[in-house]
Amino acid sequence: MDLATDPFMLSRIQFAANITFHILFPTITIALGWVLVFFKWRFSRTGDKTWMDAYFFWVKIFALTFALGVVSGITMSFQFGTNWSGFMERVGNIAGPLLAYEIVTAFFLEAVFLGIMLFGFRRVPGWAHTGATVLVAVGTTMSAFWILVLNSWMHTPAGFEMRDGVAHVTSWWEVVFNPSMPYRLVHMLLASGLTVAFVLAGVSAIRWLIGDRSAEMRKTFRTGTIMAAVIIPLQIYAGDLHGLNTLEHQPAKVAAMEGNWETRSHVPLLLFALPDEAARENRFALGIPSGASIILEHSPSGVVPGLNDFVAEDGTINHPPVAPVFWSFRIMVGTGMAMLLLSWATVFMMRRGQGMDALPRPVIWAFVPMAFSGWVATLAGWYTTEIGRQPWLVQGVLTTREAVSDVPPALVLSTLVTYLVIYALLLFAYLGVVLFLARRAAQASSADLPDPTPVRPALAAHPLHTVPGE
């Protein structure tokens, strides 16, 4: 069937476009809220005004990011009823309450205290403003918690039973703390921390390159690089645990991630390959011998599941599309390795030298393209997770095709095009505003510096004196 006339594929692309745009912004606000709490805490402890300067700069970016996250989240939630009515009909007894908990415990908390956080610094006592900042940060984290509970349940459903084709809860504890939730939650929170760390360092690097030498910018850069250097090894460890959990509950996804066709031991860790699903083999494969077996089973002789195990006798394929999962996983890991090398090298050089001034200019330049590298890694990881669940929407319970609504393809196509145009404009505007704020901060910093032009002694003694002919 032609893509333009297939409502199923169009609805999938439309939801993917929405979630791709939406996830960019919570990925920043989740951790940035806690960074703002850190800036306030440092100001309270030291009395150093530059920490509040950092707070005032980054709270503007937080507000902008929060607004776009809310708008895109509302648009995305509409699609449960318009494009994916089968999802709510089959598992709405579970998905509906979880989404309501997110609104009641997280969104209301953020909405109530965001105004105090943004505009109340000089209008409420210091403890109240700090408390509002903390509660907004708690709200962003709680929002992530409930959304990831639902998403994890879709991957590893538990605590329910099916009655007449509809899911009914038997244990909310098992629903919330389903087998993959702790791993997925930790992995996402660390991903948010890494994203924000490189946004802090990257935007600060831009400010440095356009002439900003303020103490506030230097402290923000240092905060970002140290955050990244500390979080990335934790993320690698959490990712390993998450991978082992996925191997246990979703072996087909792991087989696609590794590009492994036959269940066997001594499976290489493929660095490069072109998976060929028609021939069910990899072309131009380049890998580390037994690497996948060592990572997944912690032994060279560890057995890794193969994709051919998930093909039914009638030829029905019950594993995800291999190439997207295979490559998105490698983009995520590759971006993480780049984060590790840049953050560790930068922290090492700063400790040996005199802070940011000790860094070679190319190192500072490297943070500019890496400023939003967290977005790349997060999206690649998200695609790995979500495409890797196919053909299931709820693993073992509901397929994606069963959940799609009967919507005219022309309507889906028109709204998809509209979404893509609006999202592209909003993303361009968002990045433009961030750059504008960085430039304005750099200009303000330059205006505060003393004029380097030599002053004539006579003029220095008499500031209002004018020299004839000048």
Question: Would you kindly provide a written description of the structure presented here, covering whatever features stand out?
Answer:
This protein has helices spanning 7-24, 26-46, 49-82, 85-119, 126-155, 172-176, 181-209, 215-249, 251-258, 291-297, 322-352, 361-366, 373-387, 400-403, 409-448, 457-461; strands at residues 160-163, 166-169, 269-276, 281-288, 392-394, 398-399. It has 470 residues and is mainly α. It has one domain (3-251, 322-448). Strands 1-2 form a two-stranded antiparallel sheet. The radius of gyration is 26 Å and the shape is globular. The termini are far apart.
Short description:
The protein is 69% helix and 6% strand. By secondary structure, it is mainly α. It has a two-stranded antiparallel sheet with strand order 1-2. It has a two-stranded antiparallel sheet with strand order 3-4.
Key terms:
470 residues, mainly alpha, two-stranded antiparallel ribbon, two-stranded antiparallel sheet, 16 helices, 6 strands, globular
Tally of helical segments: 16
Spatial separation of the terminal alpha carbons: 80 Å
Q: Count the E strands.
A: 6
Major beta sheet summary:
2 strands, antiparallel
Mean pLDDT: 87
Q: Name the helicity range.
A: 55-70%
Give the DSSP E fraction (strand runs of 2 or more residues): 5-15%
- Uncertain regions spanning at least 5 consecutive residues: 449-470
Question: Secondary-structure element order, as H and E?
Answer: HHHHHEEHHHHEEHHHHEEHHH
CA radius of gyration: 26 Å
**Overall shape:** globular
Structural class: mainly alpha
With strands numbered from the N-terminus, the spatial order across the biggest sheet is: 1-2
